[in-house]
Write a structure and sequence with these properties.
- This protein is about 60% helix and about 0% strand.
- It is an all-alpha fold.
- The two termini are about 25 Å apart.
Length: about 325
């Protein structure tokens, strides 16, 4: 997108997005119903499917993972205050949904708000984003430092292995900058998850629980991390130093429009319209597509497709001279 263009629509972007900045109680509750109930129903079916064939269980786990991703988007919207008008209701719904997706509500949303406030800012990296070094920073690393960074950025770790570690282990550990109260919330979240697991294991058995939960959480977490990765790691993304950082520009040019098939768009709660979401996190997910479609300000944003997104896996470093992400081979 050309940031120098300043059409009337672009200069009035606050007025544009404000038309969509309010949730519909009916739409929100319907989304909770058509996401959570099918997820629990599939869980029950998977328990019985174990007596028939584990291949059937694995097939059902793919659909269950899709609903779990959708549940995560609702959890995500609750933290932004875009899903319900009431902050209290957002927590009443969001905290239990966080338990389903193995994510502590307060810890994750603290980091995520920091992500929104610093995305695309090279001087404020490190919280709620994928670690990305500049070419110069990478070249100054020791051999061990370079090996560690290459290992971290390798798709087999970042996309295939790390997601499960993130949701099952890292989310259980408070961070140093968090308050005592936030530490407590993280531990309470972990204890509640363990209590729920113990109850389910008591009801169906530990082996049955693992055979169902592990593939579901793995498939969902891999796809969730992949979506998050593509939202800010792609060929035409824009990153700048702090003095050049501008909220609107980075929202539209530092966040992707990931064009997905309708079915995947539904399961991912329209989060592919990430440029719209970053421009206004107060827009509920079920209004993102409508906002994008009805306003010319978004029409110049070049979409990323599934196949073009695969190319982003080779991009590992930000080249400040070329003003783009590059791969190790480009060095």
């Amino acid at each position: 997108m050309n940031s120098s263009a300043n059409t009337p629509d672009e200069s009035n972007w606050v007025k544009i997005v404000s038309k969509y900045n309010f949730p519909s109680a009916l739409s929100s509750w319907w989304q909770v119903i058509n996401s959570v109930i099918p997820y629990f129903a599939l869980w029950v079916f998977m328990v019985y499917s174990l007596q028939i064939s584990y291949w059937l269980t694995l097939l059902l786990s793919v659909f269950a993972a899709g609903f779990l991703v959708r549940i995560f988007i609702i959890f995500h919207d609750c933290g932004h205050g875009s899903f319900f008008k009431s902050e209290r209701m957002s927590k009443i719904v969001g905290i239990p949904l966080g338990l389903l997706v193995f994510t502590p509500y307060h810890r994750w949303h603290r980091d995520h708000k920091e992500h929104h406030a610093t995305v695309g800012n090279l001087d404020k990296r490190g919280i709620g984003d994928v670690q990305t070094l500049t070419v110069e920073e990478y070249q100054k690393l020791s051999k061990w430092g370079k090996f560690s960074y290459r290992f971290y950025r390798h798709p087999l770790f970042l996309i295939v292995s790390a997601p499960l570690l993130l949701f099952l282990i890292q989310h259980r550990i408070p961070k140093k900058y968090m308050t005592l109260k936030e530490h407590m919330y993280v531990h309470l979240s972990t204890l509640t998850i363990l209590a729920v697991i113990a109850l389910v294991v008591w009801a169906i058995g530990w082996k049955e629980y693992l055979l169902i939960q592990l593939p579901v959480i793995y498939i969902a977490s891999v796809h969730g991390v992949w979506l998050f990765y593509v939202q800010h790691q792609y060929e035409t993304v824009k990153w700048v130093r702090g003095k050049e950082w501008d909220y609107k520009t980075i929202a539209l040019e530092g966040s992707s429009f990931f064009k997905l098939p309708k079915l995947l768009q539904w399961f991912t709660g329209n989060i592919g319209f990430h440029h719209v979401h970053h421009l206004s996190p107060r827009i509920p997910n079920y209004k993102l597509a409508k906002c994008h479609k009805e306003n010319p300000i978004f029409q110049n944003v070049k979409p990323i497709t599934f196949f073009s997104s695969i190319k982003s896996l080779r991009l590992r470093l930000w080249d400040e001279k070329k003003q783009k992400l590059v791969g190790f081979s480009d060095l």
